[in-house]
Each structure stands twice: as structure tokens, then as C-alpha cells.
Amino acid sequence: MQAMNLLYSILVTCALAAPTGVGPGESPMKIDELLPGPAGFVVLHNTSADPIHLGGWSARACTGSGSTELAMLPAGSFVPGHGDYLIIAGGFAGTAEANLVVDSVAGNGLTLLDQSRQRVDSLGFAPHSPCRENREARLCDHLSLGRDARSTDTDDNLSDFTCQAPRPDITPTE
Q1: Which of 75, 133, 137, 157 has the CB geometry, 3.0–4.6 Å to 55, for a possible disulfide?
Q2: Where do the domains of the chain lie?
Q3: CA–CA dist 50, 43 (Å, integer)
Q4: Residue 56, SS3 per DSSP
């Protein structure tokens, strides 16, 4: 019994001492799909079985060498385990219900910051985008940039994102 108490104490101490931020590719929250523009959208995906509270998180649009806030996720926002959070632009004509509406999905990339302003994930599709992870993803006309079905994140946008038709549940109906 004493050994179990000692083990429990060590585990609790380690958990409390562990850093709260995680490095890129380590967070279960991913930028999973993105279509830029005034009719665009962003899908954030939770790869874990546990819900993630997103209140106070920020989605930032990269432009030039900096970034501007695309959206501050409101208090009470969360993503269920293996679920999605959908941000749409005002001109989006799809049928999916959005979690948040913004004017436009502008810029040359997107970065997701947690409530402590630590970078959780990024997607850049221009060579000098500050959102870029290693090599930039390549945009394709009328297609979104999306990860594979497992939301693989190797911290290389060119490897992680491919051009694909938007998911059927969020396909714009223009």
C-alpha cells in the first residue's frame, strides 16, 4: 500500500510539474481543413477522445510577415472528443452549421494559439508565411487544403496538407 501511495505521489508531482504548453504536432487540436477567401472556412479537429475547451483560444490569419486576429474563440467554446469546430467566412454558402462566423478567411496562412498564447498548430501556403511549418502547402483552385483521415501532423505543411474537395457536410453550395 505504501508503494502505491508513493507511486501516486510521484505521478501527481510529475503531472503538476509538466509544462502546460505542447510543441507543434503534439497537441490533439489540429487545423484540419482550410479554404481561404470571403466564402472560405476553417475546420479545427480534436484528435483525442477527450473534449477540449477552446474559450480564449485565437485563430490568427497570417499576412506578409505578421498575423492578425481572425477569431477569438468565445468562452464556453469546446470541441467534443474526435469532433470538429467550424469557422466560416460571411460569404460561405455551405449547409453546415458554423460554430463561429468571421468576415473572411484571409491571408496566406493560419495559426492556432491556445489561451496562454502558445502556438498549437499552423498552416502556411506562401513561402514566407509566418504561419508556415517547414515547407508551405500548395493551394489548388476551388479545392480546400486538408489533412489525411488521421489528421497526421509532421510539422511540414507540404507533407501534411493536400488539395481535396471540401468535406461533403461543409461543401459550399454556390
Answers
A1: 75
A2: 22-165
A3: 18
A4: coil
